[in-house]
Amino acid sequence: MSQPGYDNNQPSQPYTAPPTYQGVGAVGCSPEYAEGKKAQQNSLLFGILGLFFFGFIFGPLAIITAKKAERMGCPSNAGKVLGWIACAICALGVLLSLIMVIGLVASSIQ
Length: 110
Known about the structure:
By secondary structure, this protein is mostly helical. It has one domain. The chain is 65% helix and 0% strand. It is built from three helices and no strands. It has helices spanning 31-52, 55-71, 77-109.
């Protein structure tokens, strides 16, 4: 008993393997763009780290890597903004520490 619309005499189609993907370059991204995306992610990471730890180191690193990512065609506004915020917080901390030291020295003189 055969199913309707199914002919046993038709030749079977040959098996073809599914396509393989060989990384970023195979799907249309240039190596420069892939490096730009990596710099974009690093910039964001440095910006976030700079908000909480060592803003005087991670802030400028975030800004530098954001500029590198933008040169390679990947916009990195978040990393750049977080880097500037980390630098500003660090500068404010230094300024407040300096004012506090000056105040302590002035009060101990009297």
